[in-house]
Each structure stands twice: as structure tokens, then as C-alpha cells.
Design goal:
It is found in: Membrane. This protein is mainly alpha-helical. It has twelve helices and no strands.
């Protein structure tokens, strides 16, 4: 028994490590591809569409051709009223988030992403899925103050890039809330494969509209280099990130996920300054981000405590691991505890904790 538990824990932390590496790698890879100083492919909508097309194609093969995963019961009414609006905001979040890489650094983007709980809480209150509370409001205020301080300390502050990123954050927050409101009320749960199968093609269509207006003319008049292996490997990493998120969700609890997300953010900020020397971090950046992070951690703690208060007393960790291990074979590919890792590359993994927001175990610059 002890040996099985140790093996399970080792596998769990291996999945967490894979997730952290892939999530950081996708963000850094996207920045490298889009940046005019490096690969010089300044077409974020095109890159996002490549990711969507590749992910949707792979999902189609797995579901319809190889039948590795069974499709869910999707009616036309559910698709139009649920999948379409969620896809629209998902596509928007990817479009704005990827465009931000053209204007601001990866490190500053990660600092701005600390606003995700603030945006998610605001959208949840507006949509009626959460209530305005004084303790949560104070945490949101702390996060906002931290982000403002961090922005003030940004040497290469860019208004356009900041607006793109913040807009993308609010689009993603609305997507999370809509996922909770629309899909969960329908009793529909999608795993990463089925979510990509339904979401990716619809998002591709939504992205084609701004692509035709904003990027198609630039492709025709400029010399844009296209390297098949670069884009194939980039899309493959984004797809692998989706599956790693699924593996992590099925193996860990909310606390572990949030701790891993905080760790990933710091690693990504440090790595980005090494890989992209033009990214300069100031002391005020760090102080502001640390303040915001305190608010994020406190917010997550409150939300996790609220969820636990509504659930029966859980088993001890060894018992829970053993039960999860035994239940895995019959899990149908869905998270036994309904936890969501919100990453740019994760289109539609629903959960009871979806409103907690992303301390980033999760974006994408394009799933």
C-alpha cells in the first residue's frame, strides 16, 4: 500500500512538473514566435488560428477516426446557446492575450495576470454566480493596488499592450463565468479532447473575422516567413499543455494546484528575463507583484474554504489517493474533484472551482 501511494505521489508531482514546463514553454515559445526581434511573425490572430485548427483536427481524429474518446451528447440548442458564446469569448481572450506579446514583456504580462481573480469576481457578481463580500472585496483591492504599483515600476510600460492584456483577462473571466452558468446548468462536462472538438472549430470561425480585416492584408503585402516545423512544434506544445492540464486535474487538489501556479509564475518571470534580455524587472515590479500575489493567495484560500465548507469531510490524503487511484479506470476522463486549471490553452474544462480564477495553472497565447 505504501509503495503504491509513493508511486502515485511521484506520478502526481511528475505531472505537475510537466504542466509547469509546458505552460511556461508555450508562453515563452509564443513570445519568441511573435516578437519582431526574434522569429518575427507579428500575426497573433494567425498564430492562434493555427493552434485552433491543429487542436480541432487532432480532437476530430481522436473522437471520430480512432474513437479513443467518446463524444458527448451535444444538441443544436446547447451548441448555439452555450458553446458559441463561450467560444466567442475564448477566441477573444486568446486574440487579445497574444497581441499583448507584441507590445509588453512576458514578465509584465504575468504580473498583469494577477488581475484574473479580480476580473473573474467582478464578472461572477454581475452574472449572479457570486455575491459581493467585504472580505473578498478587500483582497481584490489588495490585488489591484499591487498591479498598479507593478505597472508604475515598469520601465517599458506600453499602454496599448496593457489594454490588450487586461481586455483579454476580462474576456477570459467572462468565459469562465459563462462556462459555469451555461454548461454546468445543462449538466454537460467536457474533457480536454471533447472541449477542443467543439470549441476549437467555433473559435477558429470567430477569429477568421478579425483576421480577414486586420492581418490578411499584411500577409499579402509583406514578406512573412513560414517555417512548418516551427509552427507544428508550437501547436503541438499547446496541445500537449491541454492534456497535461487534464492529467494534473485528475491527480491533485485545489491547494496543490494553486501553489504550483504561483511557483510557475515566478519561474516564468525569471526565465523570461534570461531568454529575452530586453525584459527588465525593477524592484517596484517585484514589490507590486508580491502585493498582488498576497491578495491572490488570500482570495484562493477563501474560495477553497468556501467550497470545502459545502462538502462532506474528506478522507485523509493516503485514503483519497488510494480511492482516486482505484476510481481512475472508471473516471470516464473527467476530473473526480472538478478542479479547473485555467490556462490560455485550456478552452473548456468545467468545474465547481472555475470561478476561483487563474493563479495560473494557467493562457495561452493560443491554445
Amino acid at each position: 500500500m505504501a509503495k503504491m501511494i509513493n508511486k502515485t505521489l511521484l506520478l502526481t508531482y511528475s505531472y505537475l512538473l510537466i504542466y509547469i514546463l509546458l505552460s511556461s514553454g508555450v508562453i515563452l515559445y509564443n513570445k519568441w514566435v511573435l516578437s519582431p526581434k526574434y522569429f518575427n511573425f507579428p500575426l497573433p490572430i494567425t498564430l492562434t488560428m493555427i493552434h485552433m485548427g491543429f487542436s480541432g483536427f487532432v480532437a476530430f481524429l481522436l473522437i471520430r477516426v480512432f474513437k479513443v474518446v467518446s463524444p458527448v451528447k451535444m444538441t443544436f440548442e446547447i451548441y448555439v446557446t452555450c458553446v458559441v458564446p463561450i467560444s466567442a469569448f475564448f477566441a477573444s481572450s486568446l486574440w487579445f492575450g497574444n497581441t499583448a506579446y507584441l507590445h509588453i514583456s512576458v514578465a509584465f504580462i504575468q504580473m498583469l495576470k494577477a488581475l484574473m481573480p479580480v476580473a473573474t469576481f467582478i464578472m461572477a457578481v454581475v452574472c449572479g454566480t457570486d455575491k459581493a463580500r467585504c472580505d473578498v472585496f478587500m483582497n481584490m483591492l489588495l490585488v489591484s493596488v499591487g498591479v498598479v504599483v507593478s505597472s508604475y515600476g515598469e520601465i517599458n510600460f506600453n499602454v496599448i499592450g496593457t489594454v490588450y492584456q487586461v481586455t483579454g483577462i476580462f474576456a477570459e473571466a467572462l468565459r469562465l463565468v459563462l462556462t459555469q452558468v451555461l454548461l454546468q446548468k445543462k449538466g454537460l462536462t467536457l474533457n480536454p479532447v471533447t472541449s477542443l472538438y467543439y470549441i476549437a472549430p467555433c473559435s477558429f470561425v470567430f477569429l477568421s473575422l478579425p483576421w480577414y480585416v486586420l492581418e490578411k492584408p499584411n500577409i499579402e503585402v509583406s514578406q512573412i516567413q513560414f517555417n512548418f516545423w516551427i509552427f507544428f512544434s508550437n501547436a503541438l506544445c499547446a496541445l500537449a499543455l491541454n492534456f497535461s492540464i487534464f492529467l494534473v486535474i485528475g491527480r491533485t487538489g485545489a491547494v496543490t494546484i494553486r501553489v504550483a501556479g504561483v511557483l510557475k509564475d515566478w519561474i516564468l518571470i525569471a526565465l523570461s528575463t534570461v531568454i529575452f534580455p530586453e525584459s527588465t524587472i525593477t524592484g517596484l515590479n517585484i514589490i507590486g507583484y508580491a502585493i498582488a500575489l498576497c491578495g491572490v493567495v488570500m482570495y484562493n484560500y477563501i474560495k477553497i474554504k468556501d467550497v470545502k465548507a459545502t462538502q462532506p469531510i474528506t478522507d485523509s490524503l493516503p485514503d483519497r489517493i488510494t480511492k482516486d487511484w482505484k476510481a481512475k479506470s472508471s473516471s470516464d476522463g473527467e476530473s473526480p474533484r472538478g478542479i479547473e486549471l485555467n490556462d490560455e490553452e485550456a478552452p473548456l474544462i468545467t468545474s465547481r472551482l472555475s470561478h476561483i480564477g487563474r493563479t495560473q495553472l494557467g493562457t495561452h497565447t493560443a491554445v
